[in-house]
Amino acid sequence: MARCQHLRRLLSSAAARVAAPMPAWCFPQSTGTSAQSARIRELGRLGRLSEAREVFDAMPFHDIIAWNSMISAYCSNGMPDAARSLADSISGGNLRTGTILVSGYARAGRVRDARMVFDGMPVRNTVAWNAMVTCYVQNGDITLARRLFDAMPSRDVSSWNTMLTGYCHSRQMVGARNLFEKMPERNMVSWTVMISGYVLNEQHGKAWDMFRMMHSEGISPEQPNLVSVLSAISNLGNLNILESIHVLVHKAGFERDVVIGTAMLNVYTRGVNMLDTAVKFFEGMPVRNEYTWSTMIAALSQGGRIDDAVAVYQRDPLKSVPSRTAMLTGLAQCGRINDARILFDQIPEPNTVSWNAMITGYMQNEMVDEAEELFNRMPFRNTISWAGMIAGYAQNGRSEEALVLLQALHRNGMLPSLSSLTSSFFACSNIEALETGKQLHSLAVKAGCQFNSYVCNALITMYAKCRNIGFVRQLFDRMTVKDTVSYNSFITALVQNNMLEEARDTFDNIPSRDVVSWTTIISAYAQADQGNQAVEIFRSMLQEHELPNSPILTILLGVGGNLGACKLGQQIHTVAVKLGMDSGLIVANALISMYFKCGSADSLKVFDSMEERDIFTWNTIITGYAQHGLGREAIRIYQQMESAGTLPNEVTFVGLLHACSHSGLVDEGRQFFKSMSCDYGLTPLLEHYACMVDLLGRAGDVQGAEQFIYDMPIEPDAVIWSALLGACKIHKNVEIGRRAAAKLFSIEPSNAGNYVMLSNIYSSQGMWDEVAKVRKLMKEQGVNKDPGCSWMQIKNRMHSFVTGDEEHEQIHDIHATLRELYTLLKAAGYVPDTEFVLHDIDDEQKESSLMYHSEKLAVAYGLLVTPKGLPIQIMKNLRICEMEIVRVVIFGDKLSRHQRVLYTLSPHTQGHLQGNNTADDNATMLKDLRLLQILASII
C-alpha cells in the first residue's frame, strides 16, 4: 500500500525529478551553496518554481539546506506531492525536512497526509509537534489539536501560542482565555494572539480590555500587538481611544514606525466618512513606505474617490509594484478597465500579485476572454492565479469552463487549493452538475480537506442546489467545526428544499447569529408569503440590537408592498433613513415599488429625490404608473429615461405595453412593440406578446387579439390565452372565449381562475346550462376555486376577511354597517347588478349574497374604525369581480375632493379615468362617477 502511494506521488508530480535515494548525512555542508539556496527561496516566494528548479539542478552538489529550500518552495506554492517526492530522494531528509512537509500539507488542507509524514518521522522535536498541532488548527479541528497538544512530551511557549490560536480561530474564546490563564510562561505573541482572537470574534471591547491588562502588568507594547489592538479600535468606532493609542505610540517611541503608522491609517480608512481624516493623517506621516501609499490609494478607490486616488498615486515617489497594483485594482473596480491595463503594461516586472489583480479586474468587468488571454501569457502562476480564473469563470456564468480549468490544474500535478475547490463546487451549483460535484467531493476527501469549514459550506450549498437534502444533512451533522457560515448555509439549504419549519428551528439554535442569518430567515418567510412572520422576526432582530442591512430592508419593503401595508413600509423607510441607507439604489428602488403598490404618491417623492438612477429605477416607476392605469405618465417617464441616456431593456417595454393596455393607448402600444426590435434590437418575449393581446382585447378587438396569437412566431403560453379569455369576459364574446378556455384547460387544467372566467362569460349571456357544465367539469377535475380574501392594515395589525366571514371579532357591527350603507345607497337610486349571481335564487337572495363579499366587509370595518377623512385602502388576493364590488380606491390627487370614496369598480374600468377609452368604457365610467357623487353626499 505504501509503495502504491509512493508511485502515485511520483506520477502526480511532473516537476520533481527523482534520483536514487541517498541519506541526508551524505550531503556536505558547504557555505558555497548558501547563495544558490537563498536564490531558490526567493524564486519560490515569487512563485517562479521552474526557475528555482533550474538553479537547484545547476548546483554542482546539494547540501541539506539546498534540498530543504527546494522542498519548501514546492510546499509554499501548493505542490506538497512534488516536495514529498524530492524528500524521498534523500531518504526523508532531516528533522527540518519533515517539518516542512507537514506544514506544506497543512497549508494545502491535507491533514491526513500531514499526519502520515509526522508519524513517519523517526525523530520528532518540539518544532515538529508544533507543526502538526498547527496543521490541525489551520484546518479547524480543534479537538485533535488539543489531543495532540496534551500528548506532547514537552512544550514551549510556541506550543501554547499555537493552541491559543486554534481556540481563537474556532471562536472558542472561553477556552482560549482558560488556556491563557494556565500558561506557565507568556510572551508578546501570547498577548497578541488573544487580542487578535477577540478581534476575529468581533469582541472588540474585550480585545481593548486585554490590551489594557497587558499594559497594567507593566508590559510595554510592541509593534505586533499595537497593530492588533488598532484593528479592534477601528471596529469600536471610538476616536477618543484612537487618540489615546496615538499618544501611547509616541510615548513608546513608535511615532516613526511605518508599520504602526500604516495600521493607524487603516483605522482611519475603514469608514468612507473618515476618508478626509485619513488623508490628513496620511499627509502628516513622517515616514511612508510602499504599503502606506498603496493603502491610501486603495482606500480612496474603494470609497469611490478614484480621481483622488490617482492624484495620490501620481505623488508616490517610488511607484512601487504594490502601489501600481492598488491603483490598477481601483481603476478596474470603478470600470476603468482600459486605464488599468495601461498601468499594468507600464509595470517593468509585474509580480504574480499584479498579474492576478489584472485578471481579477477583467473578471469583475465580465471580460472573461481578456482574463483568459492574460492568464495564458503569465510567465509563472501560483495557486491564487488558478483559483482566480476558476472563480471568475464560475461567477461569470461559464461554469463548464471553470470545471475544465480545474481538470487542467489537476493534470499539472497540483491538487486544487481550498479556494479552487469551493469555486468549483459553486460552478457545479450553477449548472446543477450533481455527478461532477460528487467527483469533486471525492477529490476533496483524497486531498484530506473534506472537514474544512469552507469546503463543507460550499458542499452544503452545492448539494442543496442539486436538491439532495440527504447529503446536506450528512455533511452538516459530520462537520467537526460549525461556524455561523455553516449554519447559514444549512438554513439556506433547508429553505431551498421547502423545509421552512426545520430552517426556523435551526435558526433558533444557532450559537451565534450574524446579519446573514437574519437575512436568510426573513427572506425565507417573505418568499413563503408569510410576511407577518417576516416582520415579527425583524422586530426580534432589532430587539437583539442587530442592525439590518440593505437586503433585509429591501425584503421588508417588498413585504409591505405585497400586503399593501403602507404604514409598515413607512416604518421601514424611517429605519432606512436613520441608518443612512435610503439613498442607496437598491433600497430606493424598493421604496418606489412599495409606495406604488400601496397607492401612495410618496413613490414620486422618492424618485424625484434620487441623485442616481439605474435601469431598475426607471423600470420601477414606469411599471408603477402602468399598474395604476396612468399610461400617459408612464410614457412621459420613458421619454425622460431616453433623454438621460439610459437604454431600455425587455422589462421596460413590458411596463410600457402594460401601461398602454390599461389606458386604451392602442396606437402607442403598437409603436412600442415595433420599437423593441427595430430601434433597440430586443427580441419580444412571451410577456410582450401577452401585453399586446391584452391591449387589443381590452380595446374591444377580440378577434384581432386572437389572430395576433395565431400569427405569433413562438408558441403561446397560458398567460397569453388567459389575456384573451379575460378580454372575452370583458366584451362577452362567447365563441372566442370558449376556444381560449379550451387551450387553457389543456395547458393548466388545475387553474380555477380559467373555469371561473368562462363561467362568468356564460352567465353574462344567461347560458346557465353551460355554467353548470363548467362547474361539473371543475368537480370532475378536482379543481377548487380559491376563496376571495381582502385585508387591510389598521395601526400595526392586519385584518383579513373572506366572503361570508363570521369569525371577525366585530362581525355583527360590520354587518349592521353594511345593511345601513345599502339602505342609504338604494334610497339614492342605486340598483345592485346581479348579472353574475346564480339564476336559481330569488332577487333578495342575490342581493344578500352580494352584500357580504370580502371587500365589502373590509370597507365596512374601515368605516367603523378609521377617523373621518382618512382614506381606506384594501388589498385582495384575487382579481376584482364584477358582482357590484364596493371598493375603496385611492387615485392620488385625481379625486382629492372626496376624502374617502366608495367606488363600484370592475376590471375593464380600472385605470380608465383618463386616456383613450371605448364607448362601453365611457358609459361604465359615467355610471361609476354618478355613484361617486351619490356616495360623496352620503358619507
Automatic annotation (TrEMBL):
InterPro entries: DYW_dom, E_motif, PPR_At4g14850-like_plant, PPR_rpt, TPR-like_helical_dom_sf
One Pfam family in the UniProt entry: PPR
Keyword Disulfide bond among UniProt keywords: no
Key word Transit peptide present: yes
Gene3D superfamilies, per database record: Tetratricopeptide repeat domain
Keyword list, A-Z: Repeat, Transit peptide
PPR repeats (start-end): 63-97, 125-155, 156-190, 289-323, 351-385, 483-513, 514-548, 614-648, 649-684
Domain DYW, chain residue ranges per copy: 829-882
Protein's name in the database: DYW domain-containing protein
Biological source species: Urochloa decumbens
Upper taxonomic lineage: Eukaryota, Viridiplantae, Streptophyta, Embryophyta, Tracheophyta
